[in-house]
């Protein structure tokens, strides 16, 4: 390396070390090779700066330096070669399974759960650990003993949390929160400190800090979105804007200042940032109430009507009890019907509360207060949870079957009290039917539980249950009026 000054050799060393060559002696060999290239150019009359620039152009970019290490490892290390191949194969297989699982989930085809389990399992426990292992071997960074284990644990927690969220398994919230906390408060700060402590340029340090802060804000927004915390839209918007309009221009300026040509990786990076931010913007959007008003409002209106009927029925019963001319038998019948009606309505209300709690993963006390405003419900159009909770596996093991049995028992009670009044009997039967229902398109008869609760969006199920409560209160009112009329006719 005769002819190059100490500072010039140090500049070449920084170029090679910026790629964090970890393989023994390879970094020294690369430095020696580049120095020889530059010395040869200087001997032909070029200045060091021109020779250094020409050498970099001949190399292509610093990624080619890193590629030398990767090729060397592949040639001499069979285990490393097998790990890289396994990583790529399982990455492809897992992503294909997740993609097909998503399609099956959307179309409600069988097998979606199995595809999700296999896809996320391979991604989290085969591909991701292999990728971390390869990175740990290729990149020797400061604080690597903390960064790589945290990245591994946090990444697996996030992937499993997403799987558990999709499959509605218990513990999804804890996994997601663990992953987000590790990424936001441990991994990102550790990487920033590691990068800034080994970088001399203030401009690069500031650029790294801006990029890390933007990603941290976006992750906070995603966490808020998952847990339905306020401010998610603002956090996603601010983080995406900072990443696109602050970090990307700064990085672009640095990239063009350091290189005389556009690298393929830079174009891919720009596309990745655009798509990532597009995804974040879509998450930040909230559907206007006007769009789903026709789905949500019926249940709220029915709940209000049920409350009015309950109060009105109670006033009728109190008036009958206070009337000295009222027959004791009538009072007992009315009270029996009122008690049965109250118990059924309370049971259905409890079913709705439990369903809302399952949908949004909130305490039942909070879900109960939401009955007056289902606009606050986050997962209004979820299908899987209502089906599992109310329909079960075969229609006879879900809560919906209990609703049907209790409704039939209440209807039979009213029919027994209706006696020979065919009009009242027919009215009660039409008001509270639980017999099989004929499907419009196929013409097949399906059970009452399947018709109302199988693969029906959550808000549709809530509308059905609210409508049933309203009908129960209406049937009670009709029966009280009927019994009072019967007593009046008897006295006459």
Summarize it:
This protein is mainly alpha-helical and 492 residues long.
What pattern of helices and strands is seen along the backbone?
A: HHHHHHHHHHHHHHHHHEEHH
> Strand tally, please?
2
Low-confidence stretches are none
Helical residue percent band: over 70%
Q: Largest sheet at a glance?
A: 2 strands, antiparallel
Discrete helix count: 19
Strand content: under 5%
Look at the structure and give the mean pLDDT: 84
Q: From the structure provided, what is the oligomeric state, counting identical versus distinct chains?
A: single chain
Structural class assignment = mainly alpha
Features:
single chain; 19 helices; two-stranded antiparallel sheet; 79% helix; mainly alpha; 492 residues
Q: Would you mind describing this structure in some detail?
A:
This protein has 492 residues and is an all-alpha fold. The chain contains 19 helices and two strands. The protein has three domains: 6-61, no CATH class; 199-286; 289-491. It has helices at 6-17, 26-43, 48-59, 62-76, 78-107, 112-138, 144-167, 172-197, 202-226, 232-258, 264-284, 289-322, 328-360, 364-369, 384-391, 399-418, 422-431, 448-453, 458-491, and strands spanning 437-438, 445-446. A two-stranded antiparallel sheet has the order 1-2.
Question: What's the arrangement of secondary structure elements?
Answer:
Blueprint lengths: L5 H12 L8 H18 L4 H12 L2 H15 L1 H30 L4 H27 L5 H24 L4 H26 L4 H25 L5 H27 L5 H21 L4 H34 L5 H33 L3 H6 L14 H8 L7 H20 L3 H10 L5 E2 L6 E2 L1 H6 L4 H34 L1
Antiparallel strand pairs: 1-2
């Amino acid at each position: 390396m005769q002819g190059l000054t100490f500072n010039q050799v140090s500049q070449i060393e920084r170029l090679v070390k910026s790629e964090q060559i970890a393989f023994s002696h390879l970094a020294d060999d690369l430095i020696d090779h580049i120095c020889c290239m530059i010395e040869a150019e200087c001997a032909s009359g070029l200045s060091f700066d021109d020779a250094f620039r020409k050498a970099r152009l001949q190399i292509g970019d610093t990624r080619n330096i890193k590629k030398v290490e990767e090729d060397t490892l592949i040639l001499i290390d069979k285990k490393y070669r097998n790990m890289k191949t396994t990583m790529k194969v399982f990455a492809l297989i897992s992503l294909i399974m997740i993609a097909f699982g998503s399609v099956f989930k959307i179309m409600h085809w069988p097998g979606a759960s199995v595809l999700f389990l296999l896809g996320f399992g391979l991604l989290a426990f085969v591909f991701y650990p292999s990728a971390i292992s390869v990175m740990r071997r290729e990149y020797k960074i400061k604080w690597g003993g903390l960064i790589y284990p945290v990245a591994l644990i946090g990444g697996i927690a996030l992937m499993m949390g997403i799987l558990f969220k999709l499959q509605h398994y218990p513990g999804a919230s804890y996994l997601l929160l663990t992953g987000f906390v590790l990424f936001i408060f441990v991994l990102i700060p550790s990487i920033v400190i590691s990068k800034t402590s080994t970088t001399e340029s203030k401009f690069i340090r500031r650029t790294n800090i801006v990029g890390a802060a933007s990603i941290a804000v976006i992750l906070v927004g995603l966490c808020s979105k998952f847990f339905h915390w306020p401010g998610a839209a603002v956090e996603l918007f601010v983080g995406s804007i900072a990443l696109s309009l602050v970090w990307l221009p700064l990085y672009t300026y640095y990239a063009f200042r350091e290189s005389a040509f556009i690298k393929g990786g830079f174009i891919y990076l720009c596309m990745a940032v655009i798509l990532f931010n597009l995804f974040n913007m879509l998450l930040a959007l909230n559907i206007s109430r006007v769009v789903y008003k026709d789905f949500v409002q019926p249940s709220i209106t029915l709940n209000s009507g049920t409350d009015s009927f309950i109060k009105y029925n109670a006033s009728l019963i109190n008036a009958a009890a206070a009337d000295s001319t009222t027959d004791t038998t009538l009072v007992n019948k009315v009270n029996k019907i009122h008690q049965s009606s109250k118990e059924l309505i309370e049971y259905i209300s409890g079913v709705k509360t439990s369903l809302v709690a399952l949908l949004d993963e909130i305490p039942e006390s909070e879900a109960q207060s939401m009955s007056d405003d289902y606009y606050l419900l986050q997962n209004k159009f979820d299908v899987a949870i209502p089906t599992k909770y109310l329909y079960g596996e075969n229609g006879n093991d879900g809560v919906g079957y209990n609703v049907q049995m209790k409704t039939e028992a209440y209807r039979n009670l009213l029919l027994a009290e209706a006696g020979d009044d065919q009009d009242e009997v027919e009215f009660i039967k039409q008001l509270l039917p639980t017999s099989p229902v004929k499907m419009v398109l196929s013409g097949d008869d399906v059970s009452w539980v399947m018709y109302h609760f199988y693969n029906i969006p959550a808000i549709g199920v809530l509308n059905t249950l609210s409508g049933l409560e309203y009908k129960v209160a209406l049937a009670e009112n009709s029966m009280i009026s009927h019994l009072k009329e019967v007593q009046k006719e008897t006295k006459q």
